[in-house]
Design goal:
With 261 residues, the chain is an alpha/beta fold. Helices cover 41% and strands 26% of the residues. The chain is globular. The structure holds adenosine-5'-diphosphate (ADP) and magnesium ion.
Length: 261
Amino acid sequence: MITISNLNKTYKSAGESIVALKNINLNIRKGEIFGIIGFSGAGKSTLIRCLNRLEEPDSGRIVIGETVITDLNEKELRLARRKIGMIFQHFNLLDSQTVFQNVAFPLAVAGHPKLYIREKVQELLALVGLEDKGHCYPSQLSGGQKQRVSIARALVNDPDVLLSDEATSALDPQTTYSILELLQDINDKLKLTIVLITHELDVLQHVCDQMAVIEYGAIAETGPVDKLFLHPESYTARRFVSIIDYYRDKRSIMEGMGAGI
Ligand SMILES: Nc1ncnc2c1ncn2[C@@H]1O[C@H](COP(=O)(O)OP(=O)(O)O)[C@@H](O)[C@H]1O
Ligand SMILES: [Mg+2]
């Protein structure tokens, strides 16, 4: 479904070169929830933004479905992007627009008829559990509800792929799980391929089948999530697993002492 071959990206700023991606090769299967994990600055956002060419790679090839993304001209890219939804950590909603208008926005820009827009938006608000919030403004919603609006908006063009860049990083653990459940539900119902980027390993543990670890701009390790948990090989994966173990041990000690955190 998604094939990334020999992808490279270097940023040049103030006379300095920052190598953000080094010869990335990845295969993501259709219908899969694929996790990518790495520490801050590892290159996760650059990688996911290269998939829809919000960042232009320096070299390499990206194929999504039948489309060679890296070969598209600007007009073709605009059309291809409709089939690639994206969600972000800070939701990127328009504060002056209602929930309904935020979700309707890409359809209105594309010039769809009003009736079609109304039906599509209602259908998606129901899918994300916000059917009665269409008239609200983003400031009247919780973080989890805002992310649900942005998920609905990302789905308006019936995309084949949903890219999620730290979509749960600004949410508390309980809300994180409810958003992950929603993504799983959408993956199941719509047969959508989801690329989920995070710096939280437990997020991947709950929803992903396969994952990749990115370290200093390169893929350090790939494989099934369970394998990475049981036998982490890369420095990054070992660090993530040890951090989770640390908090689990700490919690069980505290519970044993009756502190009940
Ligand atoms: N627009 C940019 N200009 C210059 N350097 C950038 C830019 N965006 C990201 N970088 C650098 O590229 C590296 C990877 O960044 P990023 O992809 O944002 O990492 P992550 O999402 O894993 O935190 C970092 O060193 C970062 O500082
Ligand atoms: Mg990032």
